[in-house]
Amino acid sequence: MLNTLLGTVTLAATLRLATPLIFAAVGGCFGNRAGVFNIALESFMLTSAFFATYGTWLTANPYVGVLFGILAGVLCAALFGLFVFHLESDGMVVSIAMNLGAWGLTTLMMVALFGVRGSFMDERLVSLPALHFSILEPLGKVNGVLNDQNVLVYLAFVAVAVMWVVMYQTPFGLRLRGVGINARAAQTSGVNILAYKWVSTIITGVFCGVAGAVLPIGGTSVFAENMTAGRGFLAVAAILVGQGNPLLAAASCLLFAYASALSVGIQNLGIPSQLVETLPYVATILVLLIYGARNLKHVSKISR
Amino acid sequence: MDTILELRGVTKRFGSLVANREIDLTVKKGTIHAVVGENGAGKSTLMNIISGVHRLDDGEIFLEGKPVNFRSPTEASKAGIGMVHQEFMLFPELTILDNIMMGYERTGKLGLLDRRQVRAEVEELLRTYNFNIPLDELAREQPVAMLQQIEIVKILYRGANILIFDEPTSVLTPAGVEGLFRAMRFLVSKGKTILFITHKLKEVLQVADEITVLKEGAVVGHTTPAETSEEQMASMMVGRNVMLKANKLKKDRGRPILQVTDLQARNDNGIVKLKHVNLTVHAGEIVGIAGVAGSGQVELVQCLYGLRAPESGAILLDGDDITRASCREHRCKGIGLVPQDRMADGCNRAAPIWENCIMGYHIAHGFRSKWLIDRGEAETFAQRVVDEFSVKASSLNEPISSLSGGNVQKAIVGREFLQENKLLIMEDPTRGIDIGAIEFIWKKIEELAASGVAVLLVSQELNEVMEVSDRIEVIYDGQLYDGGLHGELTEAQIGLLMTGGVEDAAEK
């Protein structure tokens, strides 16, 4: 049992599974903090996953794939921004439309470009390389968990640190948070609200682009219909739980990923697989419940 | 003393409304210059022009002798003009230090925030101007008086030489007001200049060096505290030609319908807006409440209608305790409301006229056969509203938003007047409608009261309160003061009560 809970395989899988969530959540934190209601992260990721596949397949170079993914993420973000900021559509409606649309679009383009349904595999679909650090070798279990992971796994943690600094230690981050807290006050301080909302949404797009790229070329070398399977929504949940703080959001992502990793390992213990597969979602709901309970005091104060 | 800011012929129009009309204003360096006037007199517009929020249509502004024309608050701020807004422009979830530097950060290596540098500068300001502010605490944990100090330090940090205070005392306790005045005098002694907007005349006499009085967008007087009195300023502020006369009917005052005892309530920001309010309205009586906006009228009506839970006190309707009753219960018990904001609270813009004409009464007074609304009955009633209150509408099925503001108001007034209510509460029932319609509504109010309905009229139009009411209460700073029976006090005396001159008026 303990071997499953804290085993090398489970922990290594946690890091691997957390990577797309972390990228999406860290980027999404910026939109969240700028006061942009965006739950279209799922569509940003799925579209990016497809174009990352396409870019890699065209050139047999996974880095080109990542670039394609980022480009697709930015385009999705631009579409979202166009509708929400300039055509003044409701963020919720645009998000739902994009999430449903992305599924249809990627499935259609799979047929059109690759001529397959369901999933796409090809020898030109090369994954990003794993990194090997020889200094970790004597460390036993730590080595097993941390070493030989995909390059994006390490980059995810670098991104968390860098974006935390951007959020809390730069004028840009301060103003961005100001826009989200009190837009009018930010305006009287000379901050261009629209510009900050746009930039924050584009940042969300870039990071969701990388997050999407992780799925097909982060080790598995396969693209499947609706490959994101709700990961964008998990990222949104992580952002809310982390209150837009990249560090806390990433921590939530790790928790969700751990639950997913566990559900893989625990199946060997004879627990019905249907039950086990609910684990990540049960964990998500539990975390959201605990997060919500913190606000209960606040709610009762308001409705007094 | 040198002139630091001079306005010549400044005019600002919003559509056909002239908010500021050829205003001349000379502000001397190192003085506290008060700009007083009623609500809607154009004080805030003028300050917004000076601080770059609005652009002027006509006229010139000279800052230290040089002509200026600010296109944004940022430009005004760079030129040394800063505004302490009535609602604080703060970020509750950020630290005070972050609040102060927002938009005017200092950066060090790699473009990162240099909080140490900002802290040094702010602490220097705190020492110079005698403030004591905990820079590392969150803004949301601070009391209101502290928030205001943060606002002041914020604009000083941005390099302001002219500080504009927009109604700064309205959110403060008496002790807080004392503190603010001390701070203002200290700032002036250090060479800063202060523009101080208010309608509280006592405070003007207490703290100002120069006074400019605005009325209906124009300057009507310039004076100093030594030369004037509260009464003189009040008559300058509110004195106007009485244009309309209400035809008072003889009425029999019946039993008490509305009884409010010792009511206390806070607004959404937790500030006490009603202080031990006692009020009785009898059947067949029109009680008018006069007061400058923000004195607690909004909270009073909200409490009376179940929209706000009072902290303490009791509200009785015809003997029933309705202190904690819901809006729906209020409607069912026979209380009508003409809300101040007709579009936001008085109607559903998207709904057709007939729906709006029964809205709120769909349960209380029928219009319902069993489960469905009785369209026939509803439309008959709606037609009555439209006919009797001469609402200009082409069809009852048109959305109410297709009507002009005045016609919407007539429809809402009609809806409330034609129901058999015991008590009718009205907030500014004649706002934005033409004189003929005002006279008509006044007549209807009289008839309604004569038929035995208790009427509570809350209005910002002093003239309306004085003409229509049988008895006048004046609200100032959350407390009610006796404004006498109809015609007992002069407009100037009531104006004085409205602006806090309680003792003086009571002597008369």
Please outline what is shown here.
The complex is a heterodimer of chains A (304) and B (508). Chain A is mainly alpha-helical and 304 residues long. Chain A has 14 helices and two strands.
Mind explaining what this structure looks like?
The complex is a heterodimer of chains A (304) and B (508). Helices cover 75% and strands 1% of the residues of chain A. Chain A has 304 residues and is mostly helical. Chain A has a single domain, classed as ABC transporter involved in vitamin B12 uptake, BtuC (Orthogonal Bundle). In chain A, helix 3 packs across helix 11. Chain B has 508 residues and is α/β, with parallel strands linked by helices. Chain B folds into 3 domains: 236 residues, Rossmann fold (3-Layer(aba) Sandwich), CATH 3.40.50; 149 residues, Rossmann fold; 80 residues, no CATH class. Helix content of chain B is 33%, strand content 25%. Chain B is built from 18 helices and 20 strands. At the A-B interface, helix 8 and helix 9 of A face helix 2 of B.
What is the CATH C level class of the largest domain in chain B, in words?
Alpha Beta
Whole-number mean pLDDT of chain A: 89
* Biggest sheet character of chain B: 6 strands, mixed
Q: Which residues of chain A sit in consecutive blocks of at least 5 with pLDDT less than 50?
A: 299-304
The residue fraction in helices of chain B comes out at: 25-40%
**From the coordinates shown, what is the CATH architecture of the largest domain in chain B?**
3-Layer(aba) Sandwich
Strand line-up across the major sheet of chain B: 6-7-8-3-9-10
Task: State the helix count of chain B.
Answer: 18
Which class best fits the helix and strand makeup of chain B? alpha/beta
What's the SSE blueprint?
The complex is a heterodimer of chains A (304) and B (508).
Chain A: H1 2-6, H2 8-33, H3 41-59, H4 62-86, H5 91-114, E1 119-120, H6 141-146, H7 151-169, H8 171-181, H9 183-188, H10 193-217, E2 223-224, H11 231-241, H12 246-266, H13 273-277, H14 279-302
Antiparallel strand pairs in A: 1-2
Chain B: E1 3-14, E2 17-28, E3 32-36, H1 43-50, E4 58-63, E5 66-68, H2 73-78, E6 81-84, H3 96-101, H4 115-129, H5 144-157, E7 162-166, H6 174-189, E8 193-198, H7 201-207, E9 210-215, E10 218-223, H8 230-238, E11 256-266, E12 272-282, E13 286-290, H9 297-304, E14 312-317, E15 320-321, H10 327-332, E16 335-338, H11 342-346, H12 353-358, H13 375-388, H14 405-417, E17 423-427, H15 435-450, E18 454-459, H16 462-468, E19 471-476, E20 479-485, H17 491-498, H18 502-507
Parallel strand pairs in B: 3-8, 3-9, 6-7, 7-8, 13-18, 13-19, 16-17, 17-18
Antiparallel strand pairs in B: 1-2, 1-4, 4-5, 9-10, 11-12, 11-14, 14-15, 19-20
